[in-house]
Amino acid sequence: MDRLCGPARVMIVSDLDHTMVDHHDPDDLSLLRFNALWEAHYRHDSLLVFSTGRSPTLYRKLREQKPMLSPDITIMSVGTEITYGEAMLPDDGWEHVLNQKWDREIVIEEASHLSHLKFQSPTEQRPHKVSFYVEKERAQEAIATFSKTLKDRGLDVKIIYSGGIDLDILPQGAGKGQALAYLLKKFNSEGKLPTTTLVCGDSGNDADLFSVPDVYGVMVSNAQEELLQWHAENAKDNPKIIHATERCASGIIEALGHFRLGAAISPRDITDYSQYKTEGFIPGLEVVKFYCLYERWCRADTENSEKHLQDMKHTFSANGVTVHPWGAEQSFSDAVEALRNCYGDKQGKPFRVWIDRISGQQIHSDTWVVKFRKWEFYGEGRRGCITTAILQSKAGPSEQCVWLHLHQTWLNEMGIMEESGWIF
Ligand code: GLC
Ligand code: MG
Fold first, then answer.
1. Residues in contact with 215: Cβ distance below 8 Å, sequence separation at least 6, in sequence order
2. Cα(55) to centroid(ligand 2), Å
3. Is residue 254 within 6 Å of ligand 1 at its C-beta?
4. What ligand has the least distance to the C-alpha of 123?
5. Which residue has the least CA distance to atom 11 on ligand 1?
6. Which domains does the chain have, with CATH numbers?
7. Which pLDDT tens digit goes with each residue over 24-54?
8. CA dihedral over 20, 25, 28, 32, signed as positive or negative
9. Of 1, 200, 339, 408, which is most buried with the most CB atoms under 10 A?
């Protein structure tokens, strides 16, 4: 990935539904915990890859519904579509690989002879993926018939059963594991092989990920029977794969700690930041910490004390200003005074703040320009800002950091700027 100059320190390759995203967690707390950890400690030198069974249409829908980070790479449709960056530029080389011994029309034709199959929605039928629903009791029979008939017709396919209901037919060279192996090979040829890779999953279509050589793996605590069974039959002696005790994204955090891949305490889980010592100044962490405090203050998840206000006040330079997204300027001291009245104004509401795509540039020995996207979630909707902050680290035992300037500009829903024609 061009965003990093060298090899990623950690590359996380995670499934989405019931792995990164917990559909039984209405507050999305485990996802938010992961987000804060990633942005504070990993974003600057690591890569985040989402690998989902969803088509681009359903993937975008999920991103609209859940407080998800922007991945560096998105692998969709069970490893048959690889795209890069926020612009989601497709990897054409991968598509070429998938055309071997594949003809989706033949798959569709043969499916019409199988009565227990039901086609999934048209959005989930993709150039290299044909998907059905089939009941658990009928799955083995359907897989056996399908593999025989498709082989007889000259195709070489991979048949995957997931979640006790979904049946996907893909080219043999496809799948989440093959897509990852392809990426690793590509990184290797560019001299950018990640130092460590952690794969995360919960269901049948993730088994492939755990088969890639040399990767660490976490099956989240809520993993499906079909994945656990695959593990018991194929990988139970592999010490690099664990079955977490925590659900979904919290299970991923658990794995980062278990394998000692880096920081494994989310800034969201820390109540007293003065006790939280890190080696050196981490600009991303400063941003995440402040917005955690801000969210707690507005939700009244922390006590209404003069000390908290003073702590926030000391975060900002007395001479600095904040430029609000609606185009108004306010001194930091006035902004902190205004915060006094905001205590608890989001109490009992589903208000959350999360930070995405933090990047920092050191412009002086102690000064950083930090850019990020800040999202606020209200329950009915969300709003986001492209944000730039200038941060200065203060040497000395307190290792305090001071914000010199903050500038925010509204983002539209999915973070894409609509205006064109403006250059400077
Ligand atoms: C996602 C896809 C579906 C697929 C399933 C399992 O739910 O939308 O088409 O069958 O993942 O891979
Ligand atoms: Mg899943």
1. 13, 180, 197, 198, 199, 209, 240
2. 13
3. no
4. 1
5. 53
6. 10-90+175-268 (3.40.50.1000), 101-171 (3.90.1070.10), 270-421 (3.10.450.50)
7. 999 999 999 999 999 999 999 999 999 999 9
8. negative
9. 200
